[in-house]
């Protein structure tokens, strides 16, 4: 059945370009901006270990499920699910996963582009020497001044969206592959330069302690839930991005080992980003627990106080922007591939329309930091709400259903063929991992999201 649905579709030139593209999708703001500060806030080493086990136990099986389904369907996630459901005699409503993913992709891209726009602005600010010798309050003023100006935010948001559309519109080979061929190696080189820079800044040992000192006492059920959410987001799971990328994967590639390489690359970048950022923070006697402001306040401040700070600051925000753009393009792939195959539309036109749609939606996020700060629904601003619904509800729901479908609904023969496992143990392990363990873990996250009190009760019970 592997090729039953393949027409004249584009394919990744080879397995390694797929690895680069998938790693490009996975490595993004989630690794460089989010991971370092949540690892620091949640117990360092204990968190890192829990996070890595979530990647292995939940992330890897779900990513394998997405790629397996994408490659068997050889179509956009919506069509692939429709066809696989039909061929497997499962309910046609499974295609809902595809629609849910398209919607989640729109929502995430709309705010992702706004935040990535901040990084673009910061390349410019660093390069023009805007951070040289600034004070802590100076760095904060720059950030809050920027956030309070909707026109500035809108400008950088628009610029990022234009870049995204330009790449996406050119298709898999000319657009996506060219982008990752250049950006991913550059990203690794920049990261290594910054790691070396951090290493000789004098704060490296402190940074290592901060991220890897095992503080078991700060671990709660909440830690697990945060780690799981992060594992999901950082691996780009739950909305069909990997399914769409998987639909261009050659039949000869081994799914299991490919996914493990992608997960390792992603985890490496997350840890390396922490080891690049924190030494500089410590060497300058700054506060590591800044939270979300770490990258836009503490980091510029730290670079501003160092020799060659403007140069390395520019490189740093360039790195963040590359990482963000190769993630953003994957957020559009489920929708774009669907519209292209359904209406036989030109890819570039579809890309422009989708970009425009997400750009308009993003204006809500832009305004959430200034004019609409006080406009809240359920106690959340527009941005918080979009972020919360997409990340905490739509992604886990999508991921859980994808794994369940890939374990129980499609024929065993297809699993065996796609994963290259043997009947018996191989197949059983798959069913236990993807069909049981991973969905169960996600279900726990879900319960916590919808009924936060549930785990509160367990925590209190544990503590007597
Ligand atoms: N993984 C990216 C990051 O870490 C974000 C991302 C890209 C994503 N595509 C996705 C998240 C699809 C969820 C689903 O920044």
Report on the structure:
The structure is a single chain. The protein is mainly α. It has one domain: Amino acid/polyamine transporter I. The chain is built from 19 helices and no strands. It has helices at residues 15-26, 29-41, 45-73, 77-87, 96-127, 136-147, 150-169, 171-199, 204-212, 221-234, 241-246, 255-283, 298-304, 309-343, 347-368, 382-409, 412-419, 425-450, 452-462. α1 crosses α14 and α18 (425-450) packs across α19. The longest helix has 35 residues, at 309-343. It is globular, with a radius of gyration of 22 Å. Bound molecules: tryptophan (TRP). Residues 25-26, 28-31, 108, 233-234, 236, 238-239, 241, 327, 330-331, 395 line the site of tryptophan (TRP).
Tell me the CATH topology. Amino acid/polyamine transporter I
Q: Total strand count, please?
A: 0
Number of helical stretches of at least 4 residues: 19
pLDDT < 50 runs, ≥5 residues: 1-6
Instruction: Give me the strand/helix succession.
Output: HHHHHHHHHHHHHHHHHHH
Mean pLDDT equals 91
Tell me the fraction of residues in β-strands, as a range: under 5%
CATH architecture: Up-down Bundle
Report how far apart the termini are: 55 Å
**Biggest sheet record:** none
Q: Assign a percent range to the helix content.
A: over 70%
Shape: globular
In this entry the ligands are: tryptophan
Query: How would you name the oligomeric state of the polypeptide chains in this document?
Result: single chain
> What value does the Rg take, in angstroms?
22 Å
CATH superfamily: Amino acid/polyamine transporter I
- Under CATH at level 1, the class stands as Mainly Alpha
Domain count: the total is 1
Q: What structural category characterises the helix and strand content?
A: mainly alpha
